[in-house]
């Protein structure tokens, strides 16, 4: 386990906040895209998306300058050291930051375009989903997959994108439980369930592929802090998958009235909390506990 | 089906986290805890894979930083030589910070002792490491 320096805690926090902002952005855009069939030219959760994008810009920058500070090792002022900014800008951390900036500014532009002209909400939101892949790609430039084969890095991009799509859509889903009548809601939830079952299968396959490429040894799950944290994540992911299955096979087919819609809503709210826990554990895994080298 | 699901979940969880050995330092000159007859003219740090050397500090026995000609550069490399000013007999400690290609921060330190007169000595290639 690495020492808990203030820089490490700052890295952990900026990474976690970046995950949340990314989930909000993709979730909001995906919700806009999905709702077009039911409410054309309707822009739900525009402020949710916008906040996600703005926070994403802030936290990506924070993440970069925290790294500058951590390398320059000269206190808080070290975050603005031009020499270290220059070096990091040219490194993989800089490349990752450039991709993020391109992604966030692209999203900001598209969200503003949607606001100005809601008639093109569908193509614009589809374009925004594609642009947000840039941000997912930024995660494959740094960290453990950075030097892996291209397919491993692509799998990581896919993995992050789908995970954030899922998590970010949960809040819009809870709102729809209150907004739509039972039959429309059921149709919407059914559509989400269909998309999710394909995407989550891809998410899991990507996960299996990456872990096969990276590790291949499951012994470390039991005899290292990192492995144990990973097992904790495994448990929580099993929990969220069970809950998602409960929604798809029990609660959604049972939507008949407002009461059953609210029951689904309450359950999705629990799912959101579990999702947050997964993001926290993921941020811990990628910053606070280093992988063991057994 | 349930087993398959469990296996898939296990895979999912190892994603962003699985181990990949981070590039540590391979050897240094002077080596850790090496006793030198004469003061070294330069420090050498050898890494197992290309890294960017971000910081090198040379401290004397009183933990006072000494001025050395180190400037971090954007170029990655495996071997770095840093000129050392004239130093006297005594204990010294070097601490370094490097960045791997994946952006990972690594740091470490090593110490050495000069107990002869401050004559120059060519750089050697002892292998010992300290992290």
TrEMBL record, chain B:
GO terms for cellular component: periplasmic space. Residues 1-21 form the signal peptide. GO terms for biological process: response to copper ion. Coiled coil: none annotated. Keywords: Copper, Signal. Gene3D superfamilies: 2.60.40.1220. One of its GO terms (molecular function) is copper ion binding. This is Copper resistance protein CopC. InterPro entries: CopC_dom, Cu-Rt/internalin_Ig-like, Ig_E-set. The lineage of its organism: Bacteria, Pseudomonadati, Pseudomonadota, Gammaproteobacteria, Thiotrichales. The keyword Signal applies. Residues 22-114 form the CopC domain.
């Amino acid at each position: 386990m690495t020492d808990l320096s203030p820089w490490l805690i700052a890295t952990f926090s900026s990474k976690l906040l970046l995950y949340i902002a990314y989930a909000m952005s993709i979730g909001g855009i995906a919700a806009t895209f999905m709702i077009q069939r039911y409410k054309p030219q309707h822009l739900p959760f525009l402020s949710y998306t916008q906040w996600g994008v703005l926070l994403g810009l802030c936290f990506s920058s924070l993440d970069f300058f925290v790294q500058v500070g951590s390398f320059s090792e000269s206190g808080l002022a070290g975050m603005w050291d031009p020499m270290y900014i220059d070096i990091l800008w040219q490194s993989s951390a800089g490349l990752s930051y450039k991709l993020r900036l391109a992604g966030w500014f692209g999203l900001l532009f598209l969200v503003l375009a949607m606001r100005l002209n809601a008639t093109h909400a569908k193509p614009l939101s589809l374009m925004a989903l594609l642009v947000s892949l840039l941000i997912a790609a930024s995660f494959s430039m740094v960290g453990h997959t950075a030097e892996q084969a291209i397919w491993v890095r692509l799998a990581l991009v896919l993995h992050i994108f789908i995970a954030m799509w899922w998590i970010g859509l949960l809040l819009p889903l809870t709102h729809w439980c209150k907004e739509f009548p039972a039959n429309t809601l059921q149709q919407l939830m059914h559509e989400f369930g269909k998309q999710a079952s394909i995407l989550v299968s891809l998410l899991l396959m990507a996960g299996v592929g990456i872990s096969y490429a990276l590790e291949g040894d499951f012994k470390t799950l039991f005899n290292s802090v990192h492995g144990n944290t990973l097992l904790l994540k495994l448990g929580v992911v099993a929990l969220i998958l069970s809950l998602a299955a409960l929604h798809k096979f029990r609660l959604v087919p049972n939507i008949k009235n407002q009461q059953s819609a609210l029951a689904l809503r309450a359950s999705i709210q629990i799912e959101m909390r579990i999702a947050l826990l997964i993001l926290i554990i993921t941020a811990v895994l990628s910053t606070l506990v280093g992988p063991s080298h057994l | 089906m349930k087993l398959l699901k469990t296996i898939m979940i296990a895979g999912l969880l190892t994603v962003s986290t699985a181990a990949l050995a981070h590039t540590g330092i391979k050897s240094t000159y002077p080596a850790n805890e090496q006793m030198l007859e004469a003061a070294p003219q330069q420090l050498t740090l050898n890494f197992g894979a290309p890294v960017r050397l971000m910081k090198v500090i040379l401290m004397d026995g009183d933990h006072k930083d000494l001025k050395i000609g180190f400037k971090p550069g954007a170029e990655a490399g495996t071997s770095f030589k840093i000129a050392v000013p004239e130093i006297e007999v005594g204990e010294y400690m070097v601490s370094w910070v490097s960045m791997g290609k994946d952006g990972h921060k690594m740091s470490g330190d090593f110490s050495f002792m000069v107990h002869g007169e401050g004559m120059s000595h060519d750089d050697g290639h002892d292998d010992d490491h300290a992290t």
